Input
Amino acid sequence: MNAAEQASTIEFTSKIAAIVGLFKSEVPDLRADLKPWADDPETQDLIDPHSVDIGFHFPGVSRLFQCRSLLIQIRLHQDLETHQLRVIGLEVGGFDHRGQQWRLSTIDNWQFEGQITPDPTSGESLRNCCRRVFEVFNH
Output
């Protein structure tokens, strides 16, 4: 679900802002998009209500990241005892004008998959951002 729509409390809004800040601290050229999903009925049917989705756009195609845009899906689970939302995993996709070029899942093995993948240093930078997202939500 679009991050802008998930920002229903000050605490949750602060966490979203912290996530945007940590990605921008690793990659300063990124521009955040808190509404990456279109508002049409077909798209809305595909959206996971238990996720926070943030888009990031480079000013052009990034050779280091092998994409023009990143889509970050932060998958959440609500603990029944504490009622706290916890991150159970992230899905990161790199997109350009041809569509998705690569993906990274923290639910599986934290490895990049796709025809092309980011430069190793840039890939590690994305993994580091993912680790920090877990810290923002789960600590």
